[in-house]
Each structure stands twice: as structure tokens, then as C-alpha cells.
């Protein structure tokens, strides 16, 4: 017996597709059959954008890409309208774009606070709001918002990133109860995922390989996660198998949060 995930004919918006988790999501959604409209900060000629097209087209699916800053309200709304016109509608929204802003609460400036909240919180709501009229016309539409394990447990010096991410499960709940039963809303809170940002973190230490090994050992799973694993979960959550999942945020952290302290 098989449980195939078939998203053929499903029209998907994904933000932040040119690297890391967003790139992994795009590949998995295309593998399941989705048509993808992606956006990111990079120009269309950038290597990450070419990797996005390759990840989608290797599965025989169509893709479009728009360079934009999701903090730009007018550009974001215009992209949603253009993507809907190009694809003939929108069925699935995966709001992924975000960036770490790690400061101490006292050291964080007001401008850094506003920037973090604009990107890591407000832009998710604005994207969903812009897409909502199209989702109302779709069959079994789904919104997925990418949060972080920092929404639940954090470490010193991760403000205001963790504050913004902590609000996203609340946004998921609000969308689920206000736009349901027609629209499902689900959050995903990834832990440490193997991305270029993670590589930059490891490379900030004198011995990157030792720091990676130490980090992996802190996870009961014995490793850190992959973008493809987050993408596969997105595909599952957008499938009919997940019809009873809405209003909740799934923590995907290799068991890291199960530990009371580092051992």
C-alpha cells in the first residue's frame, strides 16, 4: 500500500525560494506536482534563483520568479496578483521568507526591532491577507507559515528574532479560526537546518567542523535537519492526508527541545 502525495494542478506561492529552506520547499512541492510562483531578494540571474528553477523543472513543473522585498507592501501585493493571474489562481501559500536578527534586548536598536518585526512577522500576515481573496476561490486551500524553534525556546542574544517568531503560532491560530473551515492554516517551526546561514554560523567559530559536530551531538536525532525534510512536510501538510490539521504549529527540531540541558 502506498500513500502518494499528489499536488498536480495545485498553484503554489512560496517566498524566499533562492536558498535554504525555501529552496528545499520549492523542490518538494514541485516533486509532488505543484506549479510554483516564487520570490526572493536576488535578481533572476543569481545562482540561487537558477537553483530554484532547476529544482522545480527537474520534476517537470512550471515555475516563475519575482525579485522583491516582502517588506514592501505594494510590491508584495502586486506579486500576489501577478502570480494569481499567471497561474489562474492560488491554492497554497507557503510564507517562508525571513532572516535572523540576533541582538541582545538592550543592544537592539529601535530600527533593528522594526526591521525584524516587519520581515519576520508582519510580512507573513500581509502575504496571507493579499492571497486570501484567491484562496477563497480555491478548493481546499492551505496556508503554511514557517516559524522557528526560537518561538518556543531560545538562547541569549537572539532578540528580536525570537520575539517575532514567537508571535507566528498566534498568527496561525487566528487565520485558522477566522478563515476556516475553508482555509487551513498550519505553522512549521524548524530547528537547526543545514543551510548557508547555518554554514555561516559554523564558520564563525575557530574550528567549524568541531562546532558542527558539537551541535549535531546536541540533537537526539544525531544530526541537524535538511531543507528537503521541511519541504516534504510542507507537501504532506498541503495534501488531503492533513485535512484535520489546522491552527497548530509543528516543531521540527530533531528532538533538540526535548533536552532539559546540554549534556
Number of helices: 8
Shape, principal axes of CA atoms: globular
The CATH homologous superfamily is named NAD(P)-binding Rossmann-like Domain
Quaternary organization: single chain
Could you report the average pLDDT, rounded to the nearest whole number?
A: 95
CATH class designation: Alpha Beta
Give the strand order, joined by hyphens, for the main sheet: 3-2-1-4-6-8-9
Structural class: alpha/beta
| Radius of gyration from the alpha-carbon trace, in angstroms | 18 Å
Biggest sheet architecture:
7 strands, parallel
* Low-confidence region ranges: none
Q: Give a count of the beta strands, DSSP E runs of length 2 or more.
A: 9
Structure description:
This protein has a 7-stranded parallel β-sheet, sandwiched between helices. A two-stranded antiparallel sheet has the order 5-7. It is of the alpha/beta class. The longest helix is centred in the middle third of the chain and has 26 residues, at 110-135. The chain has helices at 20-31, 47-57, 73-87, 110-135, 161-179, 196-203, 208-217, 227-237; strands at residues 11-15, 35-40, 63-67, 92-95, 102-103, 142-146, 159-160, 184-190, 249-252.
Amino acid at each position: 500500500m502506498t500513500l502518494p502525495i499528489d499536488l498536480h494542478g495545485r498553484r503554489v506561492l512560496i517566498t524566499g525560494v533562492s536558498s535554504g529552506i525555501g529552496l528545499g520547499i520549492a523542490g518538494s512541492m514541485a516533486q509532488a506536482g505543484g506549479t510554483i510562483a516564487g520570490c526572493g531578494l536576488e535578481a533572476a540571474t543569481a545562482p540561487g534563483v537558477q537553483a530554484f528553477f532547476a529544482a522545480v523543472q527537474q520534476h517537470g513543473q512550471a515555475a516563475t520568479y519575482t525579485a522583491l522585498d516582502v517588506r514592501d507592501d505594494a510590491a508584495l501585493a502586486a506579486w500576489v496578483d501577478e502570480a494569481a493571474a499567471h497561474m489562474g489562481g492560488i491554492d497554497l501559500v507557503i510564507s517562508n521568507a525571513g532572516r535572523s536578527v540576533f541582538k541582545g534586548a538592550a543592544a537592539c536598536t529601535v530600527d533593528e526591532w522594526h526591521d525584524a518585526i516587519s520581515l519576520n512577522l508582519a510580512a507573513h500576515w500581509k502575504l496571507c491577507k493579499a492571497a486570501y481573496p484567491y484562496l477563497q476561490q480555491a478548493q481546499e486551500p492551505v496556508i503554511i507559515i514557517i516559524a522557528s524553534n526560537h518561538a518556543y525556546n531560545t538562547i541569549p542574544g537572539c532578540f528580536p528574532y525570537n520575539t517575532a517568531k514567537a508571535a507566528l503560532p498566534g498568527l496561525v491560530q487566528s487565520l485558522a479560526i477566522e478563515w476556516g473551515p475553508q482555509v487551513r492554516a498550519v505553522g512549521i517551526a524548524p530547528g537547526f537546518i543545514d543551510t548557508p546561514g547555518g554554514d555561516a554560523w559554523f564558520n564563525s567559530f575557530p574550528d567549524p567542523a568541531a562546532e558542527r559536530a558539537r551541535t549535531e551531538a546536541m540533537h537526539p536525532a544525531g544530526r541537524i535537519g535538511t531543507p528537503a525534510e521541511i519541504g516534504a512536510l510542507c507537501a504532506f501538510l498541503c495534501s488531503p492526508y492533513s485535512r484535520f490539521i489546522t491552527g497548530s504549529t509543528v516543531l521540527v527540531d530533531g528532538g533538540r527541545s526535548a533536552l532539559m540541558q546540554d549534556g
